[in-house]
Amino acid sequence: MIRELDENTGRNLRKRSPRALLQSIERHLSRVSQITNQKADEAQQLVYDAWEAASDGDEKNLIRQALEIDPGNVDALLQTAVYSGVDGEEEIELLRKIVAVGEKNLGPKVFKEFAGTFWGFIETRPYMRARQRLAEALRVAGRLDEAVAEYQAMLELNPGDNQGVRYSLLPCLLILKRLEMARKLFEKYPEEFEFNAVFAWGRVLERFLSADPTGAKAALLAARKQNPHMQAYVKGHRQPPRLLPEAYGPGSKEEALCFAEALQAAWAKHPLALKWLEAQKVK
């Protein structure tokens, strides 16, 4: 039970150091065993209830109950990581453990049978949420090779990409100057240029890095049309906000805010591209 992990967990989560919580969760995860589908479903419903809880206290109590029923509930374990305040390498280490639990919960048969439409099955989603959290933590930590591997594996499982990991993958590829891989991503999602700022502005950078100034200028015209608000962030004239909008529409200021951090990082890695962009006047 979760009391093995921490007595009075719901009350003490914030009092324990992130490292102490990490160690106790790791010990607990090593003892995770299979439970009945009924118990697993009951615990997952408590997690859904927690996401809609009226207060933080209610949310924590529901997460604690979920883990008492199913100590291997991936979504509940992800939430305990949030409560702990763990970050950096400790967060990555913890997230790898949680992803491993999710993989164990699903079993090899699920990965074989559901590959290609993975998100379409509700039971796979906690695992995919955990893997996305891991990939993002790797990206933020600058471990881009590892982040790229995670994003690509997720796209192989679910090419429809309901989670939008392609929007994080593309800036990583551009930073690493893996241009052929970026082009393959463009080919895989050709409709994105018109509807998404990451692809529109990412293609400008890809064309410049590919030594295609004519193509870069044409892509820039299209990117400015798709989302004119992004240019200030790409150039570094504005800094991305800490709090992001809950929703956005294509071409909106909100869209620029949501993707500014990743795109700005990609362009900042290539000073010559930024110098070229500054010289391209708006007509």
Write the layout of secondary structure elements.
Layout (H helix, E strand, L loop, with lengths): L1 H4 L3 H4 L5 H12 L7 H15 L4 H14 L4 H11 L3 H19 L1 H7 L10 H16 L3 H14 L8 H10 L3 H10 L3 H4 L1 H13 L3 H14 L3 H5 L18 H16 L2 H9 L4
Descriptive keywords:
single chain; 283 residues; mainly alpha; 2 domains; 18 helices; 0% strand
Question: Please, what is the oligomeric state?
Answer: single chain
**What about the largest sheet?**
none
Give the helices and strands as they follow along the chain: HHHHHHHHHHHHHHHHHH
User: Would you count the extended β strands for me?
Assistant: 0
Helicity range: 55-70%
Name the beta content range: under 5%
User: Tell me, what's the shape?
Assistant: elongated
**Low-pLDDT segments:** 1-16
Radius of gyration: 21 Å
The tally of helices reads: 18
Based on secondary structure, the structural category is mainly alpha
Task: Please give the alpha-carbon distance between the first and last residues.
Answer: 65 Å
What count of domains describes the coordinates?
2
Mean pLDDT: 90
Structure overview:
It is built from 18 helices and no strands. The radius of gyration is 21 Å and the shape is elongated. Helix 6 (74-84) packs antiparallel against helix 7 (88-106), helix 7 (88-106) packs antiparallel against helix 9 and helix 14 (197-209) packs parallel to helix 17. The protein has 283 residues and is an all-alpha fold. Helix content is 70%, strand content 0%. The model is unreliable at 1-16 (pLDDT under 50). The protein has helices spanning 2-5, 9-12, 18-29, 37-51, 56-69, 74-84, 88-106, 108-114, 125-140, 144-157, 166-175, 179-188, 192-195, 197-209, 213-226, 230-234, 253-268, 271-279. It has 2 domains: 1-163, no CATH class; 178-283, no CATH class.
